[in-house]
Structures are given as C-alpha cells and as structure tokens.
Amino acid sequence: MQIKALALALLGAASMAGAQETASTAMPDDMPPPPMAAMLRPPRPDSARPPEPPRENIAAPSRAVALIAAEAALAQCARDAHEVGVAVSDAGGHLLLGMTMDGARPGRIYSGSRKNAAAVAFAMPTSAVQARLQQGDAAMAARVKPWMVVFPGAVPLMAGDRLVGAIGVSGATAQQDEVCAAAGAAAVKGRL
C-alpha cells in the first residue's frame, strides 16, 4: 500500500511540475489535465462537485456565423490551392470553431487560434501587429504574451466598433493566410 501511495505522489508531483512549465505558454482559460493522482481516484458523485464559477459575458459570433466565416475562408484558400486550417474565436480569444481542409498539415487550427489571440488582444489584423512590432513599438511588445503568434493570418471580427472575435488561418504563407482570413471576415461583416 505504501508503494502505491508513493507512486501516486510521484506521479502527482510530475504532473504539477509539467503544469507549471507550460503555464507561461498556455492560452487563457486553458484547462490542463489534472494531476495523475486525481485521475486515478474514483469519480465524485455530482452532488459532491464544487459549483461552476460564474461565466463572463464575452462577445462572440454565433455558431452559424462562425461556420459561415470559416467556410468562406476555406473556400478562398481552396480557390488559391492552399491546404489550411481555420480557427474562429470569441472576443476573449477562446476557440469557438476549428476546421481543416483535406490534406492540411496537423496543428493548423492550433496555429490559427494562437494568431487569433493576438488579433483579439490588439483588435487589429496580425499583419498590422507584426508591422508595429517590427517598427519597434515597445508598448505593444510589452503586451505580447507567450501564447500569441504575431505572424499575419488573423483578422478581428468587428460589429461596428465592437470586437466580437477573430478568424485565423494557418497553412499557406502568412500573407496568403491573411487573405483567406479576410475573406472569412468579409463574408460575415453584416451578420455580427
């Protein structure tokens, strides 16, 4: 019994160390897996679960609008013969929808959502973020987080002056990605 308890403690410590290492690059609200010891315990009955924390009211496109944007971006990339993935996020940078084309390399949705994090944080296309960083904008550089990708390829989704989310594309060149993302945003401009 003591050996099992020691093994569980070591597994839990390893899980915690891994969680601390990735915390700096985790996206906001990422939910890393629980420690191994917690996963090996029997599940709690629903009545013993802690209450869910209140949810923020974050602006977001509807699922139908996100799908229209993603399909328009993929259609643009298909016309240009690019095999990509697309991610649509809410105004908090949380992934709402991800799609990949047949033949796209793995990780395209992940990269698109990381581009979205930058487009949302600065409420501008990632090409503009990258340009300002290349010009030495220190105030902007200070706001870049480790989970953001500032390559071109994501554009914010705006309802007038209000940020609603972002659409990011990954898999072609960065500039081609942004052309496809812009096509997705244009397809839903009046629907946000």
UniProtKB/TrEMBL annotation:
Residues 19-57 are annotated as: Disordered. Coiled coil: none annotated. It holds the Pfam family HbpS-like. It comes from the Bacteria. Residues 43-55 have a biased composition (Basic and acidic residues). Residues 1-19 form the signal peptide. InterPro entries: GlcG_carb_metab_protein, PduO/GlcC-like, PduO/GlcC-like_sf. Keywords: Signal. This is Uncharacterized protein GlcG (DUF336 family). It comes from Novosphingobium sediminicola.
